[in-house]
């Protein structure tokens, strides 16, 4: 338990989490343990800059799955900062919002090898490195390199190999294959309850929450505006 004798150490795991899977959870748990983090905050994106053209599930579904997946871990929490801000999700904004909530805390931004390799293309990456240490974790199929990042701001951690991706989970559900043991049980049940990742036959799935309907209406209006 944190006794106030040192700054709080806060991990931040940003992600699309469509859906959250055990690769995310193992990575966060390992970093928490090795770096003695007081808390790891999972931050579901609103619109990741490099994934804007792809179809992503409603943020409320991704947020709720993340809450379900992390609920049993005392040190895991979920933040809505990126969802509430809306627009394109830039990590620099996430860091400013979390830093404002935890003044004086040391921030550790956790990324898989694939995301780390792109960090020099992220908005305000120098400022990101000034605000947080980066922790790059191994991920099967991706090479973990520093990509020219300053050595004193980046740490590398080998985590148990989990060859799981959200893309693979979505693809499995769409063809009726199981995702048990790839994602937490509650997430399997949530996916089934709301008919996620399947061609929708709305009458057969539990109706969507008002939040999701509002979000989908707002996104459609926004996309319509952009087409004009
Ligand atoms: N199996 C894994 N092992 C280690 N890190 C992972 C793993 N899966 C995802 N990550 C990291 O978690 C963060 C969020 O990932 P994200 O939500 O995009 O999952 P994903 O599986 O890569 O999704 P998608 O397949 O839809 O691109 C990123 O930093 C990513 O590198
Ligand atoms: O800030 C940026 O320019 C930027 C560009 C790409 C990705 N990110 C962040 O990287 C995190 C992982 O994203 P993703 O899509 O791989 O789950 C998430 O928090 C994104 O907001 C951030």
Automatic annotation (TrEMBL):
GO terms for biological process: NAD+ biosynthetic process. Its EC number is 2.7.7.18. It comes from the Bacteria. It is an enzyme of class 2 (transferase). The keyword NAD applies. Residues 12-172 form the Cytidyltransferase-like domain. Pfam families: CTP_transf_like. Pathway: Cofactor biosynthesis; NAD(+) biosynthesis; deamido-NAD(+) from nicotinate D-ribonucleotide: step 1/1. Keywords: ATP-binding, NAD, Nucleotide-binding, Nucleotidyltransferase, Pyridine nucleotide biosynthesis, Transferase. It catalyses: nicotinate beta-D-ribonucleotide + ATP + H(+) = deamido-NAD(+) + diphosphate. GO terms for molecular function: ATP binding; nicotinate-nucleotide adenylyltransferase activity. InterPro entries: Cyt_trans-like, NadD/NMNAT, Rossmann-like_a/b/a_fold. Catalyzes the reversible adenylation of nicotinate mononucleotide (NaMN) to nicotinic acid adenine dinucleotide (NaAD). NCBIfam families: cyt_tran_rel (TIGR00125), nicotinate (nicotinamide) nucleotide adenylyltransferase (TIGR00482), PRK00071.1-3 (NF000840). Belongs to the NadD family. This is Probable nicotinate-nucleotide adenylyltransferase. The gene is nadD.
